[in-house]
Structure formats: structure tokens, C-alpha cells
């Protein structure tokens, strides 16, 4: 792609923007905006085609080692969302939304990854350069990147890959997964009269999660979710209910018979966690007394 030369700005324009206040792209001179967008398109097209040499052509000379050392991801599509200019339109920050897959916990999750790049004018042309980020975006929100230890080996190495930019990704994974909590592992219902029990799922992550529940059917048995989605810093209830009248209408006297133990698998997206919840149905007291002690169901935990 042929590089576009920047036109010189009129003196009045330079004086108007001599301060460092960021200027949005809609207020930038059209020729400046067009030149930068052309270079940005060339750079991010490499993330779609995997032809990294095309992107290397718009990398500043003093940043080429950092670019070569950085991990690189491919995406299906990248869209420029926002551009802001500083330093009399000689530097710019570009916000890009790249659409692809986020690999997490053995799952491939469709995701839109917000990426930020920084650009500067060198000899009248725009070039990519690297500013070490202090935060990294995940599908669940921003995660802070701890500062490098200057004494640590390879502390100057640049890595913009979201999965390897952190020093301890395993700890980050455990920390993220621990932010979703289910307050019960067992649900106890009466298998001979209408009853209900409930558990609560807490989400302390900065992003929204989705809850999917899979459980075998049973006459009169229902699982009700307050919401299929749980927002950040929210708690949602899941109600387990046995309706004896409904069961009686569906199967007659069978509603009094002992019920099998069920397992409800609660799947959380996008973390792909599965919480298994055991569901037991108590039998009538007069029938329980007739059972050998070893066959009696365990008493509910307090």
C-alpha cells in the first residue's frame, strides 16, 4: 500500500490546537484523518490476514523490536471505533474493536476484543508505536496489569497477547473463576407435598454472565430462574419447586411415590464453569419409618 503524505496545517489551525488536550477525529482536518485511517487499516488488516509483514511497514523504526517480540492474534474483522489526537495532530490514540474468538477454559467464546494502539507522525507519515498498557480488556471487563519488576529477567519484553501479558495467567484464571459463587450444593424438597428451596448465584466480576440449567424432568418439578443473565456485582436466585397438585394431575397417585435423586448442572458463560447441584425429595414420614435405617434419606444439612 502506498503511504499517504500529511499536508501541512494552516498556521491558524496549529495555533488553535497547540495545547495537549485530546481532539476527537470529527474535529480533525480531513486529510489528517484520512491519512491515519489508511495506516490503521493497513496495520489491523494484518490481524485478519495474518500477513504481519504488511503491518511491519507502518511500525516506527524505534519500535520494531517491540513489535517483533509481541504475541499476535488473528481476528475475523476489525472496526475503528474512536480516534483522538494530541500534540498538534502528531500523535493519536486509536480504539479498535476486533471480532473473533476468546479462548478460555477449553472453550472458544465469540467475543469482541477492544484494542488500543498509539500512533505518531515521523517524517510526515503515521507510524505505530508502543506504550505499555496498564490494563488489559477481557470479555468480563478490565484487568489491571501489575508493573514490571525492573530487576526481573525480560522485564522490557513487550507482549500484547491477552493470555500471556500477565506474569501469572493461572492465578488470574483462578481469581476470575472464584468471582462466581453458588451458595448451595444440595437442594431438599418434599416429594409428597408442595415445597420449594432455592440457591443464589453471585457474580462479582465486572462483566455480565449467563446461566444455563440442565436437569432431568419430573412431574410437578420446576426450576425457575429470576434471570438468565446476572450483571456485575449482582446476585440472582434459582428456585427449585415441587408442585404436588400438578404432579397429581399428571400421574395420579404416583405423586406420593419416592422420587429419584436428580442432579442439576448449572453452566456459566463465558467462563464455561459447571456447578452440579444434588436434588433430593423427602418421602412421607410414615413411609420413612418403615424403611431400614440404612435406606432412609439423610437429614438435610442446616
Question: What does this molecule look like?
Answer:
- This protein is an alpha+beta fold.
- The chain has two domains: 11-174, Nuclear Transport Factor 2, Chain: A (Roll); 180-295, Immunoglobulins (Immunoglobulin-like), CATH 2.60.40.10.
- Helices cover 19% and strands 37% of the residues.
- The chain is built from seven helices and 16 strands.
- The strands form four sheets. Strands 1-2-3-4-5 form a five-stranded antiparallel beta sheet, with helices on one face. A five-stranded mixed beta sheet has the order 9-16-15-11-13, with no helix packed on it.
- A hairpin with a 2-residue loop joins strand 3 and strand 4 (107-122).
- The chain is rod-shaped and about 90 Å long.
- It starts with 10 loop residues before the first helix and ends in a 14-residue tail after the last helix.
Domain count: 2
Low-confidence stretches: 1-19, 148-167
Topology-level CATH name of the largest domain: Nuclear Transport Factor 2, Chain: A
Reading off the top of the CATH hierarchy, the class of the largest domain is best stated as Alpha Beta
CATH architecture title of the largest domain: Roll
| Structural class determined from secondary elements | alpha+beta
Helix tally?
A: 7
Share in β-strands: 35-45%
Order of H and E elements: HEHHHEEEEEEHEEEEEEEHEEH
Instruction: Sum up the overall morphology in one term.
Output: rod-shaped
Q: Percentage of helical residues?
A: 10-25%
